[in-house]
Amino acid sequence: MDTTKLDLNLLLTLEALLAEQNVTKAAVRLHLSQPAVSAQLNRLREMFDDPLLLPARRGMTPTDKALELLIPLRESLEKLRRTLYSHQNFYPERANLTVTIACTDYIQAAVIMPLVLALRKKAPGVRIAVRHLDMAQLDQQLARSEVDLVFASHDSFHTQLRTRYLFDESYVLIGRHDHPALKTNLSLEEFVKLEHVIVSPSGGSFTTPIDDALKAFGHKRNVVMSAASFLFLPEIVKKSDLVALIPRRLVQAHSGLLSVTELPWLAEQFDICLIWHERSHSHAGHRWVRELIIEMNS
């Protein structure tokens, strides 16, 4: 049998015919005309190379082949119906779903951790798999279902992807408690003289867009270390006189453990958007997870 030309409607007709054992009743059940069902029965006979249903005194009698097909046919169609139904209706408390998210370490701490804690209460069967954000592979990963959701800035993705703005993020300066140089109303001149740790996701760089902005005003900060992760910064500044600029939301995870200094003159900020592919846009489970993320972060 050539399954590439398989017509699902024929299987639905076969199911109805085997249940009703009468062409007229099967036609009523399928909301089709009797000639249309008779024509589909002829196609089914060709497909299975078997009469399937034979004329009898009352209705039709299934052949041995038809009886052999009955149970697997019903099970397969019922499984298909449940699959289609599950994509339209999602019940968090009893759902089983895995969502793969690509993001930075900062998003893992500031957004994903609260999300996972919320899911344990609302949807314990929903699992989160986190992958490192690789912008060069983003389109392919989304298209191949390797990634379901992405957290990134608005200028990081292509317009053909689905997006939802979540929030704007700004920076604060962190250091250890009782740091001798940290104070309210820290000036730009005082700021650049501090010993800074910065984050270079690609590794090894001692400048960031913030340094480019400072350079435009004739300033250069004293960068003594380049780290690969924001998550490393709170630990090292707590044990030294080093300071670091980190996204504001990341401070919440270390509330009370660090000295936090506002810098009103620092205008540098970035936005965070939720990004997904058209393939998962209508999936009820994925839609529910997206709506939860939006509710928690907007």
TrEMBL record:
Keywords: DNA-binding, Transcription, Transcription regulation. Belongs to the LysR transcriptional regulatory family. It comes from the Bacteria. Coiled coil: none annotated. PANTHER family: HTH-TYPE TRANSCRIPTIONAL REGULATOR LEUO-RELATED, TRANSCRIPTIONAL REGULATORY PROTEIN. This is LysR family transcriptional regulator. It comes from Yersinia alsatica. Residues 6-63 form the HTH lysR-type domain. Pfam families: HTH_1, LysR_substrate. InterPro entries: LysR-type_TF (IPR050389), LysR_HTH_N (IPR000847), LysR_subst-bd (IPR005119), WH-like_DNA-bd_sf (IPR036388), WH_DNA-bd_sf (IPR036390).
